[in-house]
Amino acid sequence: MLRSLVKYPASATGAACLLLLTVLFWTSGALWPTELPDYASSSRQITGMVMMLILLPAYLLVAAFVTQRRSLDLVEQLEPLLPDPRHALDAREAIRNGLKRTWRAASAIGLVMGLFNAQPIYALTESSAPSIDITIALGQLFMWLIVGLLGGQRALAAHSFSRLGEVVEFDLFQLDRLRPLARSGMVDALVIAGALALTPLQALDAEFRWYNYSFGLMVSIPATLFLLVWPMRSVHRRIRVEKQRQLSRVNALIQAARGGATQENSQEDILRFETLLAHRERLRDQRTWPFSTALMSRLFIYLIIPPLAWAGAAVVEVIVARLMDR
Question: Is the dihedral of CA 226, 79, 64, 194 positive or negative?
């Protein structure tokens, strides 16, 4: 079913997922519960958890379409720098078929992650509110299934950009032309930050529970680092090699100029020597990653979104607690 979703627009798929999950949780009584499981302290705790389980899968499904489309645009931007048009065609093919190629392994990984969060056995055998807990367990499994599928799709896209980095042509002093390789990971970082920003819905009852966020962080932090670095790793290695090659060449020219230095050197010789020294310093200062300060600033903004959301949830908890004590 999920593989066929690529035929439909992102907004329609997200809206359909949102509607179906809302109906599911509404009919089970989990959205606005009248009975509470033993572990719940208030109905708002369950409602907040359910709202996250409704919104997050829909958001991730929309993100799957948006990131795929963005990746295809970035390949198009890189195409003029590729020595062979077939490299771009192969990358587009891999990105378009990312879900088809990875869904088996990604589904298994997603379901395993879901079992770390869901408690289907408890919901079936021990729960005091089985209809609520069974629905929440299914929602957890479905959400992590979507996480796994999206992660597999984006990992394959990151690998496709890494392969383009092995062949893309570059100028050591015009690395901004390689920004599509960096922007691929930036898009994924923004998607992950947006997903984490939805998790404070679990604090709808104004009580911040660390266990609601710990597993998500254990998954999202390594995933963010991988998706940021992997598309650029091959071109970063090539840039380092080229930088060292040019430094070695300039150092050899400086040594030759220094060895032939005499008091009778002309003004042109002195100027050439000073130029070589300046060029060596410029080479040493040249970055080896294809991103600029502006891109790093955006990344910083993306990554502080979730902590700000969590801090907001904690502030709300404190304010509500003080108001209740009056």
Answer: positive
> Is residue 190 in a domain?
yes
Q: What is the pLDDT of residues 198-216, one digit of tens each?
A: 888 887 766 777 777 888 8
What is the rounded distance in angstroms from the CA atom of residue 82 to the CA atom of residue 71?
16
Q: How many domains does the chain have?
A: 2
The letter for the amino acid at 144 is W
Cβ neighbours for 169, distance < 8 A, ≥ 6 positions apart? 81, 82, 83
Nearest to 109 by CA among 7, 223, 232: 223
The answer to whether position 128 is within a domain reads yes
Alpha helix positions (H), the chain? 10-28, 43-78, 85-96, 98-117, 120-125, 130-165, 179-198, 211-259, 267-285, 293-325
Contact of 93 with 86, CB cutoff 8 Å? no
170 and 305 fall within a common domain = yes
Tokens matching residue 98 = 């990312």
The model carries a pTM of 0.84
The identity of residue 226, as a single letter, is: F
Domain presence at residue 293: no
Range of the domain at 253: 247-284
77 Cβ partners below 8 Å, 6+ apart?
180
pLDDT band at 4 (very low <50, low <70, confident <90, very high): very low
169, 254: one domain: no
Q: 44 and 96, same structural domain?
A: yes
Residues 209, 261, single domain; the answer is: no
72 and 161: one domain? yes
